[in-house]
Structure formats: C-alpha cells, structure tokens
Model the fold of this input.
Amino acid sequence: MTTYDQIQECLAFIQQRCDLKPRLGIILGTGLGSLGEEIEVEREFVYGLLPYFCASTVVSHRGKLILGTLHGVPVVAMSGRLHYYEGFSMQQLTFPVRVMAALGIEKLVISNASGSVNPDIEAGDVIFLRDHINMQPENPLRGENDSRLGPRFPDMLHAYDRDLNQWAIERVADHGLKGHEGVYLALPGPNLETPAEYRMANIIGADCIGMSTVPEVLVARHCGLPVFVISVVSNKCFPIAEIQPTTVQDVIDTVQAVEPKLRGFVKDLVTKLTE
Done:
C-alpha cells in the first residue's frame, strides 16, 4: 500500500467519526502539551488507534490527535510529537503531518523546546525560526516521489515567513516574553550534545539546537503548507563555560514556566493566522 493510500484510509477513519474541518494544524512539543487544554475538544484519538499512526513513547507527550476549536478557529493538534530517536522512520514520524494536510489545514504551527547556542539568547526566551540546518541522518522525502503528495524537489528558500516572525517578536513582548529570530540545528538525539558539538553548532551559524521539527517542516513544505515555528529555549548551551548538566525534567520545568505567557500569545497568533 502506498503512503497516499494509507493517508486516505486514515483520513476516512477520522472523517467518519468527526466532521470538523480544521483550518490550522498544531504540533505541541516537549513541555507544551497543556496548551492543548485551550482547545474545545470535539473528538480526540490516541495515536496508536489511528490507522498507520505510531504510538508515542515519550513520557511527557500525551500521544493524541485532537480536533476542536481554539479561540473560535477549527484546529487539529498533535498533543505530543514523534521523534526519530524513538526508533521510527522519518516517514512514520511525519505521517501525521500528511494526514493534517489531507484534513484541509491552511497552515501548520510547530512548537518545540531547544537549547540555545547563541550567547545572547537565554533560557526562557522564545525563538521564531527563520531557517534550519538539517544534520539528522535521514530525510522523510527520500525514496520514490508520489506527485499526488508534492514535488520531487521542493524549494526551501521561503520555508519560514520572515514577516510573520517580525510580527511575532513584537507581539510576544506584549506577553512578557523576549522573542528572537533564529536558525535551528536538528540532530538525531536522544543524548544531549557534547560541549564540542555545542561549539560546532555556534560556529556553523545555529542559534538553537534540538531533536525534532525539521522533518515535519520538510514534509509540510512538500505538501505546500506554510509553516510557523515557535521554539522555547529550555537551557543555555553556549558559551561553553556556562553549560550546566541538564535533565529532561529540567527542560520540561523551564518550558512549563513559560507556557502561561505563551497562552495569550497563541490566542493572538491564531487570530493573525486566520485573518
């Protein structure tokens, strides 16, 4: 069975059980799952019960696909994402993005937690991606291309909306957060990086570093979806002398401390994206 056929089967499964037509897709990353509580839920599905969806294995990720309304706008949200380090193929972990595209979303909003490798960006700040560097060992577009899903060679020049980023930097300040534009470096994980790797990331032009997001962006752009990415800085990784040992709980705690301020910004963002 082709990926296209799998998408259609999953789409039919969802639409038989929920007739909501979402306008926005949202991916809620590490520590940001409770933003989903803002959604007035019409129907939710556990990943492992949806055709061809893989079940999330990360403890902090709920692993549910939620359909409902957010500030009056119909949305579909992934409460928790899938990662390459969990053992999934790139095609498996990005399959939900293709299903959201098939559901008819107009834009995709992605969130994540990242480490700052820019000495001017602190833990608790927010970065809106203007570009990325992909150093993950696999690409979700590798293999035979199905033109029904997108072009063989999708262009990535305008993967991120710089004008929207500038609006976001100004607006997020109204909610007590410091915003930046930045470049995200994607590595496979699951280990955190070594000091030498953090130094490398800084040298090659990254502002933040993480283990997700880029595969989802590649597939979204392949589908023709505009993308907006919010990265919450969970720990500072540069200069090297300022690095502290970091646990997953440290990351979650830092992001969750920022989350209440993000809620108001997300309301503004939803309004902006659906004007």
Strands lie at 24-28, 40-46, 64-70, 73-79, 107-116, 126-134, 179-186, 208-210, 227-236. The chain has a mean pLDDT of 94.
